[in-house]
Amino acid sequence: MSQLSAEDEVELQSLLKQLLQSINDKIAGAPSTECAEEILLHLEETDKNFHNYEFVKYLRQYVENSLGTVVEEETKSLCRGDGQHAIGSGHDTLIHAVTRRTRDSAEYQQMMQTLKNTMIMVVESLINKIEEDQLRKEEMHREKQHSQSNSQCTDNCSDSDSSFNQSYAFIRQEQLQVLAEKLESSKPKEVRWEALQALCCAPPSDVLSCESWSSLRRNLCAALTEPDPDLSFFAKSFSSSPLNVTREIYTSLATSVDSSFLSQKLSFPSGSAVLDINRPEISRLLKQIRLMNDFQKEVTNFWIRHPEKYMEEVIESTFFLLSFHHEHGSAGTEKALEPIHLLALLDVKATWFKKWMHGYYSRTVVLRLLERKYKSLVSDSLNNQYLSLTSLLSANVLGSVQRSVYSGKELEYSFFVHSLCVLGKLIIYTNGRKLFPIKMRKHKDPVSLTDLVVILIKIMYRHPQPLHSDTSHTDSLSPSSLVMEVLWMLCERTECAAECLYQTPVIEMLLAPVISQLKSPAATLTLIADVLARIANTDRGLALFLYEKNLVLAHSERTFAAHVIVQFTLRLLDKGLPSLSESDVSHTLCGAFIFVCRQIYNTCEGLQVLRPYGLHKAVAAAWKQTSSLSERVPTPVPGASAGTSTQELQHIHIWEETLLDSLLNFAATPKGLLLLQQTGAINECVSYMFSRFTKKLQVSRCEKFGYGVMVTQVAATAPGVVALHSSGFVRALVVELWSILECGSEDVRVVRPKPTPMDPIDRSCLKSFLSLVNLLSSSQSVWELLGRQPLANKSEYTLREMPSSIPDLIDRLIAVNSDVKIHSLFHYEQSHTFGLRLLSVLCCNLDSFLLMESQYNICSMLLQSQRENITDLDTSEGEFIIDSLSVERNHVLVRVSVVGGPSERRLPSRALQEGEHPYPWPMFSCYPLPRCYSLDPPEIQHNSEISTFLASSKDSNNDESWMENCRRQYCKVVASKPNILTGKGKLLGAFYPPNPLLYTLSGISEEKSVKSAVLSSMEQLGINTCLRYGSYLKLLKDDAVNDLTLLLKHMKIFLSTQRAKTSSELSILHRQDGYLGHDWLASTVFLITAGNMDQSLRLLLNLSSLLISAFIWPARIHACVSTKSGIPPVYWCTAHYVEMLLKAEVPLVHSAFRMSGFTPSQMCLHWQTQCFWNYLDWTEICHYICTCVVMGPDYQVYMCVAIFKHLQPDILQRTQSQELQVFLKEEPIQGFKVSNYLEFMMGLERSYRNIVLADMRSIRKPVE
Asked: Which residues does the UniProt record annotate as the domain BROMI middle region (predicted)?
C-alpha cells in the first residue's frame, strides 16, 4: 500500500483531530510553538496512552502494509548462509541490519513521500476548518455583544476564565502586525475590540516575541484608558504564561495605572465627600489594580524558577507605582488619591507584601530596593501611624458587606491597616530593621524602632478591644488586635524582641497605666498583661523585668518592672482598685496579671524576687474564698430562672481553676513547691494537674513542654508523691504501663505479626519506664509508696488481673519467684526484664534499696533465681544458663553488693560479646562475690601539712583570720595534692569550737540508755554496707561493727531530742523511729576517723551545731522545725540554687533537663542524701565533706553545679537518646576531681555567695 485514497485522507483528518483533542491540555500549556513541537516529538515517552490512540494504530497498520514484505525478505536474506555471522553475533544485530536495509529500500522512500504529502493536505484542511470555526464564533459573539444592553457593566479583569481550557490557534507575524494596527486609538471601538479578542487567542509568547510588540504594547496601554477596558488579554497572560512573559504584561499594566493617576489627578475625599467605585475612572483603576494584586499574590509560587532580574522588574514596577505621589504629587494643599489607597482597599492586610517577604529569594530583593530607592514607602507607612494617633479610628469602619461608596475616614483606616501590616512584616527581619531610623516629613528627628513600637502601643491604648480568644482576633481589623498581632510576632523572635521590645521606653509605655493606676479600661490592661507575659516567658525579657531599674515612679525613684507587676497583681487580688471591681472584668484582668507573675515565679531567679511579696498566700486565700463561694451557690429550683445561677457558677468555676492553675505552677521549682505545700492546696493542685494531664492539655500558651517536669518536681518530695497517689496519678501510670507491656492494643487490626523487641526496654514502654523512674527517684517517694506495704504473693493470678499500685507492680514484674507469677505474664521475659531494669535504677538510691531489701529480701530472691538457672541443679558443677534475665540479675546483684566509686568497683556489662565467651563476667548464686567486681583500693597517701598547720595554730582557731588561713591552706593542699587524706578528721574537729551539747552527753550516753536503743532493719543493713566499704578501703578492723552500731545508737538518741512534734500524716514524719533511712553522713565520718567511735561522736556533735549540718546531714535536720513540711532543706534550698545557677552558668545542661522531663534537683537530692556513695571515689567523698565544712555551706551548691558542668557532654548525648535519667542514676561520675573544679567553685562563690548563703541561713526562720 503506497498510495492513499480520498477516503483515507478524510479518515486521517478525523483521527488527527481526535488525537489533538486528546492531548489538548499538553499543547495548550506550551508557552511557545517550539515547546509544542517538543511535546509532540516526545509524546511516546510521556504519554502512557500513546499506543492506544486510533491515529497511532492507523499509522502502525499503514507502515506494516507498506513495508511488511520488504522486512520479511531482508530477514530471510540475512538468515541464509551468508548471514550466519549476523545471527551468531546476536539477535539485536540482526534487527539493526534489517532496519538499516529496510530504510534504504525504494519502498520505504516511496511510503514516506506519500505519507508526507497526504499529511500536509490533511493539516492544511484542518487549519482552514479551525479558522472558519473561529470566525464563525467571533461573528456569533459579536452579535451577542450588540444585542446586550449598553448599560450593563461587566468585570473583565477576573482570571477565572483561565485559558488553560482553551485551544490556541498559532498566529503569524503578519497577522500580529495587522492586529497592532487595528488596536490603534484612531480605529473604531468595534474594530479594536475584535482585534483584542483575536489577540487573546494567540500564545502570549508569540505576541511578546513579534516585531510589532512595542506598538502593540503602546496600543494595549492606551486601550486600558477607555471607560470600560477589556482586561482579558492581561488576565489570560497572567494565568497561563511563564514569568518572562507575565513580567512584561505586569510592567505594562503598572505603567498604564501610573499614567492614569498622573493624567486624571484624582482627589482624596475629605469632609462629607465619598469615593464612589462605580465612577468609570475609579472602576477602571480598581479593576486594573485588582488584577495586579491577584498576580502579586500568585507570582510567589513560581518566580523562584526564573532569573532574579524578572522578579526584580516586577517588584520595582510595583514600588514605583506605590511611590507615585513622591514623583508626581502637586504642591497644593488638596490631598491626592494615590494607588496605595486603592490597593489598601482591595488587600487591606497587605497579603501581597507578606507573601513577598516570606521567602528569602524575594525578601532579599524587596529589602534591597526599599533601602536603595524606595525608602519613602516605609516613611509613608510610618507617617500614617503618626497620623492615626491624632485622628479617631473606628474599630469596625471596614465591614464584610460589599459596598460601592467609601468615605475619606474609611480610606484612611484601610491605609492605616495596610501600613501597619507592612511595617509589622518588615521589622521581624534583620535587614528590615536596618532600614531604621527613618527620616519623615514634618518630623525633625528620625524615627527609630523603639519609637515605632511606642507608637503602636499608644494606638492600642487609644482603641482597646477586649481579647475574647486568640482565634477570634486573627481576622479582626480593630487597631488593638492588629497591634497585638505585630507585638506577638516580635515576642516570638528573639532578635526582634531584643531590638524592638526589650527597651526602656517600651517597657515604660507598657507599664504606664499600671504605674499611674489611673482609670484605665480593663480591656487595655488585659492587652498589656498579654504582652508582658510573652516578654517574661523569654530569658532576656525575664532578666529585663528582674534586674534592670527601667521604670520611673513618683519622686524620680526608679524600680524594677517585676516589682511593679506583682504589686499591681496583689492590689487586684485584694480588690484594691474600685474602678475594676466588677466581678467578671476583675477576674479576667486579675487572671491575666497572675499569668504574667506566673512566667516570673515558675523560674528559680524569678521566685527569688517575688517571694517577699507573699503572692502564693494571696492566690491561695483567693482560691479558698472562691471555693467556699462555689459551695454556697444555690441549687436551682424547678420553675425558677436558672440562667443567672448557672452563669454565675460557671464564672466562679473558671476563676477557681485559674487560681488553682496559678498555684500549681509554683511547683515548677523546688522552693516554689515548698511554698505551695505551705498553702495547704497541694492536693487540690495536683488533682487539677492530673485532670489536665490525662486530657493531654498544654500547660499554658507560653509553655513549650507538658507537665512532665512539674510531675517530676512534685514526685521528689513526700507530700508531693502523696498528693500524686491520692489524685490517681500513680494508679493511672501503673495501669497504662501494664496495658502497654502485657495487654497490647487488641483493638488494632493485626496486619503483620508484631516484631520481637530487640531492646531490653521496648520503645513502646520507654515513656512509661522513664515516668516510673521519675516518680520513684527520691527515697522519700519510695518510702511513701512502699513503706510497710507487703507484696501480695498470691497463690493464683488471673490473666485479667491488673496491678494498680507500685507494690503490685513489684510483685508482678520484679519479685517473679513462683511459677504462678510466671504463668500470669503473657510476655514473661520481656516483662521481667523490664522489672529488673526498673529495680536496677531504684537500687541506685541506697535508702530505697535498703527499704526494699528489708521488706522484700530482694537479694535472696535474685540469688534463688540464679540458682534455678543452672544446667544441673543436683550438683554444684552445673553451669549458669546465660540469657537476658540471668544477665540482668547478675548486674543487679553486683550493683547492690559492691560499694564504691568509678575507680573502686566494676559493674558487669549487660551486653553479650562475640567469640567463644559471650559473657566473660562470672555469675554467682551465693556470697561472697567474685573478686573481679572490686578493683584495687586506692593508696591513701600521707602528708602532714594540714596536721602541722592545725598543731601550730591550736590556740587561735577561734579567730576569723585563722579560719581564712585555714581555708587558704586547705585549697592549697587540695589543689597540689588531691589524693591526700591524712588530717581530714583533725581538720573537721578543729575548724569549729566544741559543741556545748558534748558536755551534756553524759545524760545521753549512759550505757544502759544506749543499749536500750534499737536500730531498724534498714539501719542494720546500712551498717553491713558501710562495713563492706570500710573493709575494702582497709580503714576498718574486724570488730568495727560494734563501734559503728554504738555510734549510730548514740546519734539516734541524740537526734530524738531534737525532733519537733508534728501532726503530719506523712510516713517519713509520722513514724516514731525517727529518720527512716540510714545515716550515711555518720557512716562517712566513721570511715574518715578510721573507725574511731569517740572521735566520730565528737565530730558529729560539733557538726550538729553548724549551719552546714542542715544540708549535708539529712538525719540531723529530719522532722525538726524547718522540715515540718516534709521537704528537706537540701531540696528547697540547695537543689533550688543548683537549678538557678545551672541556667546561668551551664545553660545547655539546664535545657537538656527541661527537654527530658527530669530535674537537676532530683539528682542533687539523691547524691547528697547518700553523700555521693557509689558515685564518687572515697577521696572525692572526703573532699566533698571537708569542702562544705571548711569553705562554707554554699559550696554544696557549687559542687553540684561543677559536677553537672563536668558531665555536660554526656548529659547532652544521653538526652538525645532519651537515657538521661538512667544514665545519671546508674553511672558513676567518671573523672571528676574536686581539685580540678575548685577554681570554678570559688568563682561561683564570688558571684553568688551573698544570695545563696543568706538564704541558707534563713533556715532558722523557715520560708513562708
From this structure: 174-824
Task: State residue 365's pLDDT score.
Answer: 94
Pairing relation of β-strands 405-407 and 551-552? unpaired
Q: Which of 19-23, 121-125, 750-754 has the lowest mean pLDDT?
A: 750-754
Q: Residue 328: is its pLDDT beyond 50?
A: no
Reported as a single tens digit per residue, the pLDDT across 435-450 is 999 988 777 789 999 9
Distance between CA 969 and CA 991 in Å, rounded? 12
| Nine-digit cell string for 1136 | 533550688
Residue whose C-alpha is closest to residue 1170's, from 985, 1029, 978 = 1029
Kindly state the cell numbers that stand for 544: 529585663
- Rounded to whole angstroms, the Cα distance separating 478 from 475 reads 9
Alpha helices in 928-983 (DSSP H): 945-952, 960-976
Burial class (CB in 10 A: 0-12, 13-18, 19+), 1071: middle
List the grid coordinates of 408.
475619606
Q: Cα separation of 1194 and 967, whole Å?
A: 14
Contacts of 328-336 with CB under 8 Å at 24 or more apart are: 328/261, 328/262, 330/265, 334/267, 334/268, 335/267, 335/268, 335/270, 336/265, 336/266, 336/267, 336/268
pLDDT score recorded for residue 735:
93
Residue 331 confidence (pLDDT):
45
Let me know how long the chain is: 1264
- What is the spatial distance between Cα 729 and Cα 282, in angstroms, rounded to a whole number? 68
Which positions ≥6 away from 1256 have C-beta within 8 Å? 1107, 1110, 1111, 1129, 1133, 1134, 1193, 1194
For the residues of 372-390, what is the DSSP string, one character each?
HT-HHHHHHHHHHHHHHHH
pLDDT recorded at residue 616: 95
Sign of the torsion angle spanned by Cα atoms 270, 276, 280, 284: positive
Strands 405-407 and 274-276: antiparallel
| Continuous segment of H or E residues that includes residue 358 | helix 351-358
Residue 748, amino acid: V
Pairwise CA distance, residues 701 & 529, whole Å: 14
Residue 271, class by beta-carbon neighbours within 10 Å (0-12 exposed, 13-18 middle, 19+ buried)? exposed
Is this prediction's pTM over 0.85?
Answer: no
DSSP percent split of the chain into helix, strand, coil, nearest 5: 65, 0, 30
Q: Do 383 and 377 meet the contact criterion of CB atoms below 8 Å apart?
A: no
What is the distance, to the nearest Å, from the Cα of residue 231 to the centroid of all Cα atoms in its chain? Answer: 48
Phi, psi torsion values for 125, nearest 5 degrees: -60, -40
Regarding predicted confidence, which is higher, 7 or 983?
7
pLDDT at 1044: 95
Distances (CA, A) of 1017 to 853, 864, 1080, 1118: 9, 21, 15, 19
Per-residue pLDDT tens digits for 510-534: 998 888 866 678 888 898 999 999 9
Whole-number average pLDDT of the chain: 82
- Which stretch of 230-239, 905-914, 1132-1141 has the lowest confidence by average pLDDT? 230-239
Query: Which of 326-340, 349-363, 685-699 is modeled with the greatest confidence?
Result: 349-363
Residue 961 has a pLDDT of 79
Q: String of b and e for 624-644 (b: at least 16 CB within 10 Å)? A: bebeeeeeeeeeeeeeeeeee
My answer on whether omega of the bond before 437 falls inside 30° of 0, hence cis, is yes
Buried (b) or exposed (e) across 552-569, using 16+ Cβ within 10 A? Answer: eeeeeeeebbbbbbbebb
DSSP character string of 536-579:
HTSHHHHHHHHH---EE-GGG-EE-HHHHHHHHHHHHHTT--GG
Element (DSSP H or E) covering residue 250: helix 243-264
* Pairs from 1056-1064 (Cβ < 8 Å, separation ≥ 24): 1057/1004, 1058/1104, 1058/1116, 1058/1120, 1059/1118, 1059/1119, 1059/1120, 1060/1119, 1060/1120, 1060/1121, 1060/1124, 1062/1119, 1062/1124, 1064/1124, 1064/1126
